[in-house]
Write a structure and sequence with these properties.
two-stranded antiparallel sheet, about 250 residues, single chain, alpha/beta
Length: about 250
């Protein structure tokens, strides 16, 4: 709460950054963390989520960014049951200002709210879905083909706004756990969870995605990788080496 006025205090700086983003044709969005839970059954947590979403929207507005620049949010937890959790999310959405509502987009998650759970929520609140392919592979009870899932998510976006999705690769590297037992140190291999993001993007899976799942469709791809910009640069290099062209 002590920093609630920072957007106003930094309005000039934010306006300059927004102008620079538009000049470079960079699409910006935000993705509040796991503690921003709009459908929480804890009133304090839900109240803080409302404030957080308002601030996020104010920041994008202060930068003068277009409607393609969204605040991406997971539906949240499933306390009670999915129907009750969904109703809490919709009530939380209704508490937002019109400005914050206009910025919100919702994303399928890897545990509770699959794409088929998220789509009817998006219809109820009139906001688009950001499809996350790794989350879909982790949480897809109906075994929807990727192409079908992608088209369903893209259809939730307004015609004048280019949709976006999230693409990431599963972490595959082993780590080591050390446990001290008396004077001995025991080592054991730890397998990564399927939902864990890799540092980089698997170029072969991305190429297959472009050539098959995404062919003929128009949308933006945001990479979710621990390597950040390095992951993007490396992916471009690898795809170029295989003769795969990407738009700038």
């Amino acid at each position: 709460p002590g920093f609630r006025n920072q957007v106003d205090e930094c309005s000039d700086e934010l306006a300059r950054i927004g102008a620079r983003a538009r000049e470079l044709d960079v699409r910006l969005s935000t993705h509040p963390g796991q503690y921003t839970v709009l459908n929480s059954d804890d009133e304090r947590v839900a109240n803080l989520a409302v404030v957080e979403l308002e601030v996020q929207a104010e920041m994008l507005d202060a930068m003068g960014l277009g409607p393609e620049c969204v605040v991406v949010l997971h539906v949240g937890g499933g306390a009670g049951n999915k129907e009750a959790a969904t109703d809490r999310f919709v009530r939380g959405f209704d508490r937002l200002s019109d400005a914050a509502k206009r910025r919100l987009a919702i994303e399928n998650d890897d545990r509770t709210f699959s794409l088929l759970d998220v789509l009817p929520i998006a219809e109820r609140i009139g906001r688009p879905v950001v499809w996350d392919i790794l989350h879909h592979h982790c949480n897809d009870p109906k075994a929807l083909p990727d192409r079908e899932a992608l088209e369903m998510a893209l259809s939730t976006w307004r015609d004048e706004v280019t949709p976006k999705i999230h693409f990431s690769s599963q972490r595959l590297d082993l780590s080591e756990r050390k446990v001290k037992r008396g004077r001995r140190v025991e080592r054991a291999a730890v397998l990564p969870q399927m939902r864990a993001h890799a540092d980089l993007i698997d170029p072969m899976s991305f190429e297959l995605f472009l050539r098959h799942t995404a062919t003929g469709l128009d949308f933006d791809v945001m990479l979710e990788a621990k390597g950040k910009d390095l992951a993007l640069i490396r992916l471009r290099e690898q795809l170029s080496a295989r003769g795969v062209s990407l738009p700038n």
